[in-house]
Amino acid sequence: MKIKKLAILGSTGSIGTQALDLVSRHPDRFEVLGLVAGRNLDLLEEQIKKFHPRVVSVSDEKDASALQKRVGASALGGSPVPEIVWGQNGACQVAAMEGVDLVLSAIVGAAGLLPTYEALKKGRSVALANKESLVIAGELMTSVARQKKVSLFPVDSEHSAIFQCLVGNNRADLKRIILTASGGPFFKKTAEELKKVTLEEALKHPNWNMGAKITVDSATLMNKGLEVIEASWLFDLTPDRIDVQIHPQSIVHSMVEYKDGSVMAQMGVPDMRCAIGYALSYPDRIETGVKSLDLLEIGNLSFHKPDPTRFRCLDLAFQVARTGGSMPAVLNAANEVVVEKFLNKEISFLEIAEQIEKTLLKHTVSPLKSLDDVLEADQWARRVATTL
Ligand SMILES: NC(=O)c1ccc[n+]([C@@H]2O[C@H](COP(=O)([O-])OP(=O)(O)OC[C@H]3O[C@@H](n4cnc5c(N)ncnc54)[C@H](OP(=O)(O)O)[C@@H]3O)[C@@H](O)[C@H]2O)c1
Before 283, cis peptide (omega within 30)? Predict the structure, then answer.
């Protein structure tokens, strides 16, 4: 079997560490050539010692020199010392490394856009966790992937589920897709109760253990909204063919309905290693360490309609998906800014949706013809959302 050579962007995060867990389980299948992380030098140092990448990138120059000292020749006990690079250029260098077969894009937020785009431009297939890059630049990303004849494998569990349900079927027979959502920790709260929820409560996701930003996005349902836009690009579907259902058990990861009335679902216990493993090893399936699903123990699977009045973010994302142009980039940037404010305890939970909506209302939609147009819309939204 040919060893697949990987570059892992966001190696110290929730997705990155789970991907490296799979690499450790399958040394005969995967080799790590490059790593990109932000500021977690302790974990990155461990990863370098274990996986021996050739190039490693961190957020800034100061961290790059600190890391350089830590992983000097003597510290690595004779193993090759990696080249240490930094910043956006460093991340792009790792994404475009010679010899890489697949890039796992798992940096959080818009910071993942340029390295992901760079990987596709250099003709690398991408396993995509960084949904934000497709939300803000879906047309550019999918068209460069088509031009270069490379694949975008979904890592999000919902999109992986849809991808798995599409394999072996005729695309022309697809009627709609149904994305499931856990509903997050506040699914049962009334509008009045939502006024008082705290950051600590928002960070306690009932089923998934994820990074802070996506955990808050799950509580507001913005995560599902971003996933609707992501799905529209990945599967070339208009938003009216994408439904969302709240499924608190997170066992059915998503569903596909065909024109004959047949609905296919992909199920499993909530553990991202299943979706990451499929994206890394497609079309093969690998052992992931994921627990067996015991439906007898679970007993009951339930599905509910999302409430757009209590969870405005999902509705805003659907509106933005229909409008297109610069609107999704503005939605994403505004969300990143206001979620950061919420994480810093500067605003309340309900103000997240309010401030995103205010930013959207101030924006005049324009077409996104280039990466510069995307970055301009992103920067505009960040400036507006910051001053609200
Ligand atoms: N976690 C999940 O279960 C899950 C599921 C589906 C999709 N996703 C998507 O996957 C992506 C990653 O999510 P996550 O939960 O893994 O996030 P996370 O745990 O917060 O990890 C984010 C990673 O990105 C790195 N990073 C942040 N800013 C960076 C920058 N400017 N330059 C380079 N690296 C940077 C972080 O480095 P440091 O920690 O070293 O600073 C870390 O490695 C997100 O787009 C999310 O929506 C996640």
Answer: yes
- Ligand 1 near 12 CB (within 6 A): yes
- Give yes or no for residue 38 CB within 6 A of ligand 1: yes
Phi first, then psi, for residue 264 (nearest 5°) are -110, 135
Give the model confidence (pLDDT) of 190-210 as tens digits: 999 999 999 999 999 888 888
Instruction: Name which residue sits closest to atom 2 of ligand 1, judged by CA.
Output: 210
How many alpha carbons lie under 13 Å from residue 289 in its C-beta half-sphere? 12
Give the span between the Cα atoms of 41 and 39, in whole angstroms: 6
Q: Which domains does the chain have, with CATH numbers?
A: 4-154 (3.40.50.720), 158-322 (no CATH), 324-388 (1.10.1740.10)
Could you tell me which residues come within 8 angstroms of residue 171 by beta carbon, excluding any fewer than 6 positions away? none
What whole-number distance in Å separates Cα of residue 308 and Cα of residue 322?
Answer: 16
Helical (H) or strand (E) element with 61: helix 61-70
Q: Does the Cβ of 113 fall within 6 Å of ligand 1?
A: no
Nearest CA-CA partner of 50 in 28, 72, 21: 21
Summarize pLDDT for 277-320 with one digit per residue, the tens.
999 999 999 999 999 999 999 999 999 999 999 999 999 999 99
9: CA distance to ligand 1 center in Å?
Answer: 9
Would you say the CB of residue 108 lies under 6 angstroms from ligand 1?
Answer: yes
pTM (two decimals): 0.95
